Amino acid sequence: MTRGREVHLASRPVGEPTVDNFALVDAEVRAPSDGDVLVRNSFVSVDPYMRARMNDVKSYLPPFEVGEAMNGGAVGEVVESRSPELAAGDTVLHQKGWREYATGKAGEFRRVDPQRAPPSAYLGVLGTTGFTAWIGLVDIAQMKEGDVVFVSGAAGAVGSVAGQVARLRGAARVIGSAGSDEKVRHVLDDLGFDAAFNYKAAPVRHQLRAAAPEGIDVYFDNVGGDHLEAAINEFNDHGRAALCGAISQYNNVEPPSGPRNLGLVVPRRLTLRGYIILDHMDRYGAFIKEVGTWLASGAVRTRETIVDGIEQAPDAFIGLLRGENTGKMLVRITPR
């Protein structure tokens, strides 16, 4: 019988998570029944939205249960199949992450092509991460050629793709914020943004105004807080914001203080729209066609921050929330 390690939620965090909120458990892996497959995970994704699932609150996804394995995006190889839908050796994408092995119905796993892109890319630029960026720019913010676009968290997994989508779709100017001078250089030199700034170096509102003297038309929000407030200040009339996340507030134990300038939304006729990627899966094919072509041609560049070993998943997740990653944060599962 196969055994594998998995990460459980040991306790609910108050404020920033610590390693004590997690437990590494050596568990028996269920053998596949008829219609099932057994998958050995290769890469596991850690993502900001998982912080909200550690709280016992109602949301668009159920909370993680204390004492049980966590879950999330993962990619791996089928090692045993009892379904005609998948065969041993297939590379699959699924939502049974935070563990070394996963067993489930074949319909819970989606075959991906490792010849088209490395398996890890299906958790990043060709997965939910890239899809979130593309939908936010194209459908939610309805970016048009000639728009000035501001992306917060521009060196992160979603923001790095969002800025490149904006550039490739004809934005007049793409501006990004990042949390270090090194990340700013990456955003400018590797990702092709027109301007970028270190949000820790000076108030965001001052740096954004200097980078966008004629205002902005689109804001892709990964951060919330002072970034959203600064964007509202700098919006031109009929500006549009795609509200993807608010990572600056995920560990808050007190209500956020702002944005304090929502009174500008009415006279400037702004649209601030939140969205959940699960509502837009009918657009996945269009996303893959466009972004997959850009990736194959080298027009889109990606970077990954990889941590080795399932036992390091809690540290990788905590590091993600602290902004220690550049690009997609992944945990690589090495066979024992």
Automatic annotation (TrEMBL):
The segment(s) forming the Enoyl reductase (ER) domain are 17-331
Pfam families xref list: ADH_N_2, ADH_zinc_N
Q: Which SMART domains match?
A: PKS_ER (SM00829)
> Which InterPro entries does this UniProt record tie to the protein?
ADH-like_C, ADH_N_2, ER, GroES-like_sf, MDR_fam, NAD(P)-bd_dom_sf
A GO molecular function annotation here is:
oxidoreductase activity, acting on the CH-CH group of donors, NAD or NADP as acceptor
Superkingdom field:
Bacteria
Is Acetylation there in the keyword field?
Answer: no
Q: Does the keyword Oxidoreductase apply?
A: yes
Q: Which UniProt keywords apply?
A: Oxidoreductase
- Which CDD domains does this chain map to? PGDH
- Supply the name of the protein: NADP-dependent oxidoreductase
